[in-house]
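Friendly challenge for the regulars: who can give me the structure tokens for this chain first? No prize, just bragging rights.
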Amino acid sequence: MFLKPDLCLGVGINYRNEIAANIVQHIEDVDFVEINTERFFLEKQNSLLDHILTSVPIVLHGLTLSVGTANQSISQRYIDDLSRTLNRVDCAWFSEHIAITNVDGLEIRALMPVEFNDESIERIVRKNKQIMALTKKPFLLENIAYYYSMPNTQLNEAYFIKEIIERSDCGLLLDINNLYVNSMNHHYNPYDFLNQLPLERVIEVHLAGCDYMHTMLVDTHASRVKKEVLELFEYVCQKTSINGVVIERDAKLNNFSELLDEVYLVREIVKKYHTIRK
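First reply, four minutes later:
Bragging rights claimed.
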């Protein structure tokens, strides 16, 4: 049975080696840190990351589960690595993407969209339950940005996400920047889309920057969060409780103070609606 965590961790950032020293120096300014799950599949970590692990709450975010891949089960090696990581790392929750990242055993190194149909729903739910059986820690799935529609898509995306989350009985990692990017590229109202999602299952929110490349808006994680995305975020805060917000920055990391400014700004929005853990 789905149980939402009681506490709001607050506002955090995603870990990158390039800013590890900055995070340690400003550890009091971030409420928690999100780290890629697969990083812990390697036994040895650097000393800066070890310091972060003992200083603030941690959440894990995976990239290679590939729940959307057809005709391919989750490898035993992945299950063993994930199980060991979940036992070793004291994370508040862990998450993955509704995406394809692996085909025929080959890593694509990108998040590819899944066909929105009943067959995909059944496949993803089956894999989710296999992962959730490993632990009692909350498991979340994230909506991705996509720039084309897969063939054999038969369902509305919001309905597709809702069915996966509810049938899996898991949490939702709502990436509001991805939603906004998709709404602009695929021409739909993002507020209407939000109202179709099971917002009561939102545990974590992702915010990030996006930029135009020619005529297409791209989820770059290389700039400040847009005003429109912050407005969508505040709308979500008004509709449901949120347990944590991560500001994702994966490029143009030389100005850490700009990232901290965004943390402070988003924290003020969160505090209008939620009590952040002490």
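The mean pLDDT is 96. The radius of gyration is 18 Å. Your move, everyone else.
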